[in-house]
Amino acid sequence: MTLTGHTAPVISCQFSPDGKKIASASYDGTVRIWDAADGKLLQKLEGPMSAVFYCVFSSDGRKVASLSRDGAVRVWDVETGKLMHTLYDQADKVYHCAFSPDGKKIATASHDGLVRIWDADTGKLLQTLAGHKKAVLSCEFSPDGKRLVTVSSDKTVKVWEA
């Protein structure tokens, strides 16, 4: 099966946690949600976005977060295709984001060396973690959601209480 429709390179993709959907992110400024069984396009998530280079499902599969070149993280409702929140990081670049296992928080890894934790339902900034000396390139929650691990171009790995 081949999924077609993007008009620029596709940079990121992911199965939903139940394996029934696929999200794909593209430099065309869209995230597309596909039926994993038959390849049918279910949603085309678009808005005031520049190139989208990453997308990730929440653990319940009801939300998708996307990262775009404009430095924003957008949280989308998968079923309706509606934009729920736009999380504007103060950094000019956000390199990665991750949902907590319960889907209630989103962590963002940023060029400014900070990690920000957001409420996934309200879009409110909950916490800012400082400690890296250079850009934070990736972040992931532990399976129980109590800790967050981050990596940086400062050549360190940090583990935080989330």
Characterization of this structure:
By secondary structure, the chain is mainly β. Helix content is 0%, strand content 55%. It has a 4-stranded antiparallel β-sheet, with no helix packed on it. Strand 6 and strand 7 (72-77) form a beta hairpin. The chain is globular and about 45 Å long. It starts with 9 loop residues before the first strand and ends with a strand.
SSE blueprint and pairings:
Layout lengths: L9 E6 L5 E6 L3 E6 L5 E6 L5 E6 L5 E6 L3 E6 L5 E6 L5 E6 L5 E6 L3 E6 L5 E6 L5 E6 L5 E6 L4 E5 L1
Antiparallel strand pairs: 1-2, 2-3, 3-4, 5-6, 6-7, 7-8, 9-10, 10-11, 11-12, 13-14, 14-15
Question: Notable features of this structure?
Answer:
single chain, 162 residues, mainly beta, 15 strands, globular
